[in-house]
Amino acid sequence: MYRKYWEYFLSIEDDLVRLSRYIELAEANYKTYSIELSRIILASSSEFDVIAKALCKAIDSSSSASNIDEYRGVILSRFPKFPTMQIKIPRYNLSFKPWESWNNQLNPP
Prior knowledge:
Helices cover 49% and strands 6% of the residues. By secondary structure, the chain is mainly alpha-helical. The protein has one domain. It has a two-stranded antiparallel sheet with strand order 1-2.
């Protein structure tokens, strides 16, 4: 069942790798705008929504969480250290804690 999520992740990752041939993934370029970058961000955000909803159902089969604020409550109830997870991208010497703001009941910027 979860293989479809992994395949879609790999597809988005491939898009990002191709984009990196034109826009270096570096802090100096964080303010760069492109339609392709916007598409990748929107696809990633949409996929998070789908996966978060499925994760909430896996945590609590009666969950009706349907937005990021509701996902936060359900996910943190089962995985309280979720906001401390660090994502590393060694190829570009980057690391992120994308869910760190959940410690303060806020959503990622």
